[in-house]
Design a protein that fits this description.
Glutaredoxin; 4 strands; four-stranded mixed β-sheet
Length: 149
Amino acid sequence: MAHLRILRSLLLFIPALLFVSPGEGTCTQFCHADPPKTKIIVHYFHGTVRCKTCLTIEAYTKEAVELFFSREISNKSLVFLPENIDEEKNAHYIDEFQLISSSVVLEAVRDGKRMKWKLLPKVWELVHEKNKFFDYIANETREFMRGLP
């Protein structure tokens, strides 16, 4: 008799399993896989020895990026990255981005591959006009990001 009760309980339980949505509670890593994101890197390339103007360009660029792109920074879709091109590991950027001095470069990367980049040469002209410098960084970065996936 006990075996019949157990068998009957199992037979009542099996149909209930059939009505459970396949995604409920059984999600694998692929259920909610995020699509690959494009990451924007705002590079500031500098040498080991830096003048006051070079230090100001770095500080203004960092401040402008943090001011205008805080949401993108917090969701990790944009990062500010100062890099010393005198270090051997960064020397390749000189040719890749056609650098002739300390420079700000915007780079879009997706799946580890560079999609596009843009040099911002006017930082040298605008370094003594902080508001115009900030506007330049913000506008160029927004325009660069337009249309990216």
